[in-house]
Amino acid sequence: xxxxxxxxxxxxxxxxxxxxxxxxxxxxxxxxxxxxxxxxxxxxxxxxxxxxxxxxxxxxxxxxxxxxxxxxxxxxxxxxxxxxxxxxxxxxxxxxxxxxxxxxxxxxxxxxxxxxxxxxxxxxxxxxxxxxxxxxxxxxxxxxxxxxxxxxxxxxxxxxxxxxxxxxxxxxxxxxxxxxxxxxxxxxxxxxxxxxxxxxxxxxxxxxxxxxxxxxxxxxxxxxxxxxxxxxxxxxxxxxxxxxxxxxxxxxxxxxxxxxxxxxxxxxxxxxxxxxxxxxxxxxxxxxxxxxxxxxxxxxxxxxxxxxxxxxxxxxxxxxxxxxxxxxxxxxxxxxxxxxxxxxxxxxxxxxxxxxxxxxxxxxxxxxxxxxxxxxxxxxxxxxxxxxxxxxxxxxxxxxxxxxxxxxxxxxxxxxxxxxxxxxxxxxxxxxxxxxxxxxxxxxxxxxxxxxxxxxxxxxxxxx
Amino acid sequence: xxxxxxxxxxxxxxxxxxxxxxxxxxxxxxxxxxxxxxxxxxxxxxxxxxxxxxxxxxxxxxxxxxxxxxxxxxxxxxxxxxxxxxxxxxxxxxxxxxxxxxxxxxxxxxxxxxxxxxxxxxxxxxxxxxxxxxxxxxxxxxxxxxxxxxxxxxxxxxxxxxxxxxxxxxxxxxxxxxxxxxxxxxxxxxxxxxxxxxxxxxxxxxxxxxxxxxxxxxxxxxxxxxxxxxxxxxxxxxxxxxxxxxxxxxxxxxxxxxxxxxxxxxxxxxxxxxxxxxxxxxxxxxxxxxxxxxxxxxxxxxxxxxxxxxxxxxxxxxxxxxxxxxxxxxxxxxxxxxxxxxxxxxxxxxxxxxxxxxxxxxxxxxxxxxxxxxxxxxxxxxxxxxxxxxxxxxxxxxxxxxxxxxxxxxxxxxxxxxxxxxxxxxxxxxxxxxxxxxxxxxxxxxxxxxxxxxxxxxxxxxxx
Lengths: 464, 464
Description:
Two copies of one chain form a homodimer.
Chain A: E1 3-8, H1 12-23, E2 33-38, H2 43-53, H3 64-76, E3 79-82, E4 93-96, E5 101-103, E6 110-112, H4 114-126, E7 132-135, H5 143-159, E8 165-168, H6 181-184, E9 188-192, H7 195-208, E10 216-218, H8 222-253, H9 257-265, H10 291-299, H11 308-319, H12 322-332, E11 339-343, H13 358-368, E12 372-376, E13 382-383, E14 388-389, E15 402-405, H14 410-413, H15 417-421, E16 427-430, H16 437-445, E17 449-452, E18 456-460
Helix pairs in contact in A: 1-3, 4-5, 8-11
């Protein structure tokens, strides 16, 4: 009899995790698991379920292996998706990939815990007695022990069944070309509320992940592994924020910060240093650094704990897209009545994900100041968060005063400036190292003013 | 005729650089350079000069190869040290290793530029026409172009000689066991005020450094390479500061942050993450992050530039040693009248350097609050900055209420807690991951309260 794995929540992580589990190979080369993906019976959930059952990954992706494995999973016969949570009664393992959000509109950021608690209660209600629950969701440290465990215990007692095992093992998914591989071929930390939970979690992960090359790391407690996840994202966010002030300095001091960073990165102790950019987006880096402070207040009962570096980093990252806007403002002598083309609206190169994209901050601020923004992105058809259409081809761009390259999509490196400009000379702002030195030079030679964030004025546009 | 290299300033960097140059091998295995070390004709300078001429490295060092190479240099006949700057008339190359300090006691930190300018003027006055000047000193970005170059130009004009070449190439010296190697077997960036200067600097460095394994990186301008140096130290200081808030959180959340960090460090994008510690000391990390802001105001004429992350990092690092002090305060119910042994007063493990040590902050604050501090350090005989004696053997320690391990000297890992305690049960605070888990356990078993920074209470001392 096959081990049955339910993956609860078919978002960016859960969908890919379900496919990774379906691909896992057990003894004699047979599939290791029967996998059931579960999402809510609402419009969004049903669309994801239908897509997966058709063998189509429910999100735009440039990862051909993920696309192919999704197709295979649907045809292999060991995977299906459903909105019926009662299937959990067959689950030996339930992997939790439902979101846990922060409401940043409160005076103090507050946890939006109810949907998450409801999801855990559903597991408690339906899952097979003694099933292993593996929380993959990024949660405030202490959540497994103080939120999840009490719900599961209560359910098991009410049902009079064997208690559930509970483990935490966070994902390090990286959308893009190696999406699926970022689950299966990457290091993992994990932990259990007791030794049996940890051991069963390890056994599960060993089948899904290439642990020979990416050994698992067991941590002492779920709170430790929850802390690891939010700490590593806070670290990343802080490193991104750190370089911002140096980019601005470099622009004024007439230093090319990119060559400086190249010289620094050779040091093993300094190879994580980041380069200037357009800001931070996506579901994780924009909120995870806040989770420990929230955990202290809302989960662990520790009151207010200060996280001055992480807080400052989030603030700097949020404001980062305003810097290129100020550059345009200064160069054009104001923003009112100006039209600006924004090239790149996803939060990361070569992905179509627009969640919490810094481009949103840019657009909203620019429009508040009276500018008109035309949005381009080769990978995005429609900007859901702002509900507006997106141009996919640069030549569809009307005449604009400035073009901001915000995301280093590979398509932008293929632009041939002279042909693309068609005789026009907008101000060109490379806000995220999107263009090559040759392209910057060609824009300048064509008569454009050219500014690169972290380097400064490449051309004032008078040199054509 | 040999190429003559003068090294100006025989401090921690200049002394080691002079030895590295003296060791450099040219064609046919002969020494590449005749090296003359120059320092000021004051007491400190003369002591260093005499020491080097005797074949003794003028600072306590655990680097046996540096000690041996200093001895060899004195006997090989291609090295001498002197306080007579007129020897520069023979110099083909002058390497500048004189200090450039910041006065942090001003309302706004201010550059102490005069001694540095005087040193450059001395070169201009005496150096051989057309000599190459290589500035190794960490300076505010813009200093070579805006301070050094005008002085050298003026001198050459006044003397009616060929102008000097000028390059900047910063050192990445790391005191400790691999002190000399950190000069000769490590990556270097460099730059010149013109192509000839850069080329000659490259030729010089190629003889001193193992550039086959550690290729040189040429930057576009001295300002770029000056920026690289202060940026990399600001990056390091920021990474150290970042983890502080997480250590405090971990202590309260009952998480061992060290195991968490171990799990995070496997990620190549996160391998620079630091662990909690006692603070930041030494000549570089305590001041270098300030240099860009100072450069903007005093050297580049850019006015006030904000460096919020770097400023916050320096503040957090300065206050870091106060955290273990507060732990002791809380554990002992106040500091007044308490005696504390401070184990480790240098700023770094396995070095004797006490410059700007965080231990100084600890001692001064503790004594201000009425505690008595007994200082230990296996490597330091006398604490020059505080002008007080240092105990070298732990058994010389009188009865104290608490012992703080502040520096992870290897000697501390050899302590056998039971024997060392001799029946006493002071509070043990491991503030810098100085002790092994076994040692912490043994201190606890002996009846000591044990607290580890970044982990929390290991034992309340009641479990003996």
